[in-house]
Design brief:
Layout: E1 2-8, E2 13-16, E3 29-36, H1 42-60, H2 68-79, E4 83-84, H3 85-92, H4 96-108, E5 112-116, E6 124-128, H5 130-150, H6 156-172
Antiparallel strand pairs: 1-2, 1-3, 4-6, 5-6
Helix pairs in contact: 2-4, 2-5, 3-4
Length: about 180
Amino acid sequence: MVFTVYKYLRSKATISTDTKDFRTVSTKVVAYETQEVKTLDITKCFAAISRQTQIFYTRELMDANISYGQMMFIICICDKPGLSQDEIAAEMLLDKSTVARAVKQLTENDLVIRAIDNNDKRKHHIYPTEKALLLYDRMFAVREKWHSRLTRHLTEMELIIFLQMMEKIALTEQLE
């Protein structure tokens, strides 16, 4: 795969597969070059990061008896209390049945409560319990610690580009 790498003043760069789709980080382009980039197995990389992420969170939250999956739901629900299960699914890029199973488990563990919508009895709003709120700061800190550890070797510009690319992939390639 061939990428065009645009180099900017102060070593700022952005990568684009289409010269019309690059973001300007500085006003002057110093030089550009086309180079061959070795393509890694993306699935293998995502799987390795996912496994290491789950191992890290499990180890860090072992004493709280919270799994990685539960943690992600609790953070979402604490960040935006009162979302419906459908809204949680959209927010977390998950299917509705996965959210329903997770909410059921979190309810059984007294981490969330389900409140029926006054206008639509089929719709439930999900709220964190006091137990979940007490864990929230710790879970958020663990997540920030992992993100810092995962990206510690990236420059600020590489991190910005990486996050933009990951967001683009996540938002455009959702399984339907």
